UniProtKB/TrEMBL annotation:
NCBIfam families on file: PRK08279.1
GO-annotated molecular function: long-chain fatty acid transmembrane transporter activity; long-chain fatty acid-CoA ligase activity; nucleotide binding
Organism of provenance: Cynoglossus semilaevis
GO cellular-component term (any): plasma membrane
Domain of life: Eukaryota
Catalytic activity entry: a long-chain fatty acid + ATP + CoA = a long-chain fatty acyl-CoA + AMP + diphosphate; tetracosanoate + ATP + CoA = tetracosanoyl-CoA + AMP + diphosphate; a very long-chain fatty acid + ATP + CoA = a very long-chain fatty acyl-CoA + AMP + diphosphate
Keyword GTP-binding: no
Topology relative to the membrane: Multi-pass membrane protein
Name recorded for this polypeptide: long-chain-fatty-acid--CoA ligase
PANTHER family found in the cross-reference section: LONG-CHAIN FATTY ACID TRANSPORT PROTEIN, LONG-CHAIN FATTY ACID TRANSPORT PROTEIN 2
All residue ranges annotated as the AMP-binding enzyme C-terminal domain in the record: 496-572
E.C. designation(s): 6.2.1.3
């Protein structure tokens, strides 16, 4: 018996050594697959359960289980689950009385990062309403567009965004839109203050009957995303999608005892779905910031004992650019969840701030395929596994950068990219992995659908992203295609920027694109423009247009004046060569201009300015 036991132990050790040597990520794969299966079973149960169990019901259960537990820390204040529940009841009753909101209506939230955002959204959910989450940076034309495309008849805002609302108020009033301000009073005609009604309303629970017809397939949210062309699009987010996104924290092994730090905007899917909804699903505490601050980041983490942080690539770069301190590893952060971090910044972040597990993600608000780097391998956005291939079919297909179209064979079908080759990621549209599309925009919804991919009649979601999957099944993000680039963690639609540039009297045509700047994440805005006959480039007028109508991250920092813009055979503006040229005057003979935020105008771009950008004397 002893000999048999010794032999078995030796075989087990040998097997373990073999697996560890030749399949080093086998344990990680198994652990992640088991977690995913458990979460998948929960989602299936939620689909079948009657009455429908939503993320709101999950919050209500948490409020009943531990009403005194802190839900939100914000600027020195803390709000328990019970307090947030009662405040949302008051807001719901006030909106029900003042705005006559009822099940099936849509209301737009135009609010900054603050607790009122959370309890106002909960209030809308308790009334069975859909919430449209408006980007608080947008103004004028973009604001009106985002509001109108979701079919909302009510907009809820705060005093700090009053100027932006007042600018478009005449149009809102013409359309019969009601504007409610979370304030005690408002002297502007057409804007109704709501705070007094909220304070006088009952905090007792609302009847479930108010949302009796809401199902897992009902629209819970509209989250805005910049697509390949045009103004921001309202991605339809169902209650099923809210659940799926909220599970991401659980997939990363976050527990109810963790404390989650949210410094990303709540109007984004990252801050709202992964951050806030994920915290509700876990029943945990969140620390909410109005906006990201590199100088206060680690002090906040230490003060509130934060264990899980959220990031975009810029977050980590800003933290790594801060002056070094002796206590940089003195914190309890053990996990970072986010996307967009460069390999070199990732390495520097770990070296400076300690052994933090980084869970880099790849996903899109409206997409039907995503990846999680559950192994902590630096530089990858995820890892393919057998479960994902089975339940969420996807592929990388060959893509022509110049024509911006998939490469097709003689039969008109797409060609799968070889292992290790960069290709366009597409996800098969099925009942399990649907693509709902965009509210009020059938054309853009259809553009994201790719037909006849591997056989006639099949249907895939076009992510618009180029990825690479290596021999070990690790996934690497390569680039974004089409007419969108990403800067400061925000997607920028090039045609929207071009429309604004052409409002300047001197500009006839504009071709907008993103260019890389050494040491920075993403691509910064640049435009090639042609001038009207007899006109010179008007620095101050162009500056005025972009500042008045575009958020800071979308303003083109570089402008190139050309005699004509190069077109394709189908009259699409060519960008590839422009992107390759970059912005340095040593490589370009055309006149170049730089948006100088200090002088508040565009100035001729010189080699000296380029050197100051490279040395970080000029902050982009």
């Amino acid at each position: 018996m002893y000999i048999l036991f010794t032999v078995l132990a030796g075989l087990a050790l040998l097997a373990f050594t073999f697996v560890k040597t030749f399949f080093p990520y086998f344990g990680d794969d198994c652990s992640y697959i088991l977690r995913s299966l458990r979460l998948g079973m929960r989602l299936i149960r939620y689909k079948k359960i009657k009455p429908f169990y939503s993320i709101l019901d999950c919050f209500l259960d948490a409020a009943r289980r531990h009403p005194a537990k802190t839900f939100v820390h914000f600027e020195g204040q803390q709000f328990s689950y019970g307090e947030v529940d009662k405040q949302s009841n008051r807001v719901a009753r006030a909106l029900q009385a003042a705005a006559q909101l009822k099940e099936g209506n849509t209301a737009a939230l135009f609010l900054p990062n603050e607790p009122a955002f959370i309890w106002t959204w909960l209030a809308l959910a308790k009334l069975g309403c859909t919430a449209a989450l408006l980007n608080f940076n947008i103004r004028s034309k973009s604001l009106l567009h985002c509001f109108s495309c979701c079919g909302a008849k009510v907009i809820i805002t705060s005093t700090e965004l009053l100027d932006a609302v007042e600018e478009v108020l005449p149009v809102l009033r013409e359309q019969g839109i009601r504007v409610f301000l979370l304030s005690d009073s408002c002297s502007i005609q057409g804007i109704e203050s709501l705070s007094e009604q909220v304070s006088q309303a009952s905090d007792q629970p609302l009847s479930w009957d108010l949302r009796a017809n809401v199902s897992i397939r009902s629209t819970a949210l509209y989250i805005y995303t910049s697509g390949t062309t045009g103004l921001p699009k309202a991605a339809v987010v169902t209650h099923e999608r809210v659940w799926a996104a909220s599970f991401l924290q659980a997939a990363c092994e976050v527990t109810a005892d963790d404390i989650f730090y949210i410094n990303l905007p709540l109007y984004h899917s990252a801050g709202f779905l992964i951050g806030m909804a994920g915290a509700i699903e876990r029943g945990m505490t969140i620390v909410l910031r109005r906006k990201f601050s590199a100088s206060q980041f680690w002090d906040d983490c230490r003060k509130h004992n934060v264990t899980v942080m959220q990031y975009i690539g810029e977050t980590m770069r800003y933290l790594c650019n801060m002056p070094k301190k002796d206590n940089e590893k003195d914190h309890k952060v053990k996990l970072a969840i986010g996307n967009g971090v460069r390999k070199d910044i990732w390495t520097e972040f770990l070296n400076r701030f300690g052994d933090i597990k980084v869970r880099e993600l790849y996903a899109a608000t409206e997409g039907n395929i995503g990846f999680i780097n559950y192994t902590s391998k630096i530089g990858t956005v995820g890892r393919e596994n057998i479960l994902q291939k089975m339940f969420f079919p996807h592929a990388l297909i060959k893509f022509d950068i110049d024509t911006e179209e998939p490469v097709r064979n003689s039969e008109g079908l797409c060609i799968e990219a070889a292992r290790g080759e960069t290709g366009l990621l597409v996800g098969k549209i099925t009942q399990r992995s649907p693509f709902i599309g965009y509210a009020g925009n059938k054309q853009q919804t259809e553009k994201k659908r790719l037909r006849d991919v591997f056989k006639k009649g099949d249907l895939y979601f076009n992510t618009g992203d180029l990825l690479r999957i290596d021999e070990d099944n690790f996934v690497y993000f390569q680039d974004r295609v089409g007419d969108t680039f990403r800067w400061k963690g925000e997607n920028v639609a090039t045609s929207e920027v071009a429309d604004i540039l052409m409002m300047a009297h001197c500009i006839l045509e504009a071709n907008v694109y993103g260019v890389k700047v050494e040491g920075h994440e993403g691509r910064i805005g640049m435009a090639a423009v042609t001038l009207r006959e007899g006109e010179e480039f008007d620095c101050s007028d162009v500056y005025k247009q972009v500042v008045n109508y575009l958020p800071s991250y979308a303003r083109p920092r570089f402008i190139r004046c050309q005699p004509c813009l190069e077109m394709t055979g189908t009259f699409k503006m060519k960008k590839v060569k422009l992107v390759e040229d970059g912005f340095k005057p040593t490589h370009i003979k055309d006149p170049l201009y730089f948006l100088d935020t200090q002088k508040k105008t565009y100035v001729p771009l010189t080699e000296e300015i380029c050197e100051e950008i490279a040395s970080r004397k000029i902050n982009l």
